[in-house]
Design a protein that fits this description.
Largest sheet: 6 strands, mixed
Number of strands: 14
CATH class of the largest domain: Alpha Beta
Bound molecules: adenosine-5'-diphosphate
Distance between the termini: 45 Å
CATH architecture of the largest domain: 3-Layer(aba) Sandwich
CATH superfamily of the largest domain: P-loop containing nucleotide triphosphate hydrolases
Number of domains: 2
CATH topology of the largest domain: Rossmann fold
Order of helices and strands: EEEHEEHEHHHEHEHEEHHHEHEEHE
Structural class: alpha/beta
Strand order of the largest sheet: 6-7-8-3-9-10
Shape: elongated
Length: 335
């Protein structure tokens, strides 16, 4: 659906050229929820704004739904923007218009009659669960409701792609979860391709299929969330994951110093997560184990478990081999 080929972006300012994005290649498939994570200033907004040409790219090839974005004329660009909706951190609603009027706005711009617009607005209000709020003004709504209006407005012209620029960063955790659930449902039910910018790995874990990590204008890591989240390679990615998992590095180092034996990080993915593998292997190989840290959760719909264990006594090599043979990803943290 979206292909970046050696796409780069510079801004020109008083001090000359500033490179916001180094040349990067990226593929975002139809129907994916694709996360873009990075610290402030990493180039996330820039990357996403290239997709609907809110910012033109400086070089390379950028294809959106089969079209070279750089080659579009004014009419082509208007058509592209109807196929690419966008929502924002601060919602960007028109304060003097009601909820229904905000949602109708892009339909008016697209030349729909008031009757056509009304019917579509009703559909969209139902889709985001705001039927009873149609005549309220933005100031009368909660943050979560405002973002639902933003989503309904972004979907008014039936886009295939939805760009979300820190769409949950201004919301409390409970409201964030509800908005992320809504986005996941829209992805499933409408087949909507979603590109989602965030600085929180937990947002990526909950809704994204794939993720790209940006660091100071460079794409440093990308892939399936099950790979990147569970086995982060780049130091920036590792820090994001550690933050999401609330890992206390000092406490972990102290725990390591207090236990003997081989320390392993075991990653279980999918159905294996709930099998009693560790106990079975311990019985079969005569090892003892102590749990140093652990988490069982989900990446989107996929359950995973990640345990840090110390193995003692018995046949430790055999235990490690049996875990690996059973499909557990085994990383030796201390031999
Ligand atoms: P992020 O979304 O990751 O916070 P941005 O894409 O907004 O990052 O910004 C990346 C870099 O590009 C920052 O250093 C920012 O100051 C710079 N930048 C963004 N927009 C412009 C602009 N219109 N003109 C000049 N510099 C910009």
């Amino acid at each position: 659906m979206i292909q970046f080929r050696a796409v780069h972006k510079s801004y020109s300012g008083p001090q000359g050229e500033f490179v916001a994005l180094q040349p990067l290649d990226l593929d975002i498939g139809a129907g994916e929820v694709f996360g873009v994570i990075g610290h402030s200033g990493a180039g996330k907004s820039t990357l996403v704004r290239l997709i609907n040409r809110l910012e033109p790219h400086s070089g390379g090839r950028l294809l959106v739904d089969g079209e070279e974005v750089g080659a579009l004329d004014a009419a082509g660009l208007r058509a592209l923007r109807r196929r690419v909706g966008m929502i924002f951190q601060h919602f960007n609603l028109l304060s003097a218009r009601t909820v229904a009027q905000n949602i109708a706005f892009p339909l008016q711009l697209a030349g729909r009659t008031p009757q056509q617009a009304d019917a579509r607005v009703r559909e969209l209000l139902a889709l985001v669960g705001l039927e009873s709020q149609a005549d309220k003004y933005p100031a009368q709504l909660s943050g979560g409701q405002k973002q639902r209006v933003g989503i309904a407005r972004a979907l008014a012209t039936g886009p295939k792609i939805l760009l979300c620029d820190e769409a949950t960063s201004a919301l409390d955790p409970q409201t964030t979860a509800a908005v992320l659930d809504l986005l996941a449902r829209l992805n499933r039910e409408l087949g909507l391709t979603i590109v989602l910018i965030t600085h929180e790995m937990d947002v990526v874990r909950r809704v994204c299929d794939k993720v790209a990590v940006l660091d100071a204008g460079r794409l440093v890591e990308s892939g399936a969330v099950t790979d990147v989240f569970l086995h982060p390679q780049h130091p920036t990615t590792r820090r994001f994951v550690a933050e999401a998992e609330h890992v206390d590095e000092e406490a972990q180092t102290r725990a390591f110093a207090q236990v003997q034996g081989r320390i392993l990080r075991l990653t279980f993915l999918g159905e294996d997560t709930h099998k009693p593998l560790l106990a079975q292997v311990a019985r079969a190989t005569g090892i003892d184990y102590s749990l140093l840290s652990g988490r069982i959760d989900r990446i989107r719909e996929t359950p995973y478990g990640q345990l840090t264990v110390a193995l003692l006594g018995g046949d430790i090599d055999a235990a490690q081999a049996q875990l690996t043979a059973a499909g557990v990803h085994v990383q030796v943290l201390r031999a």
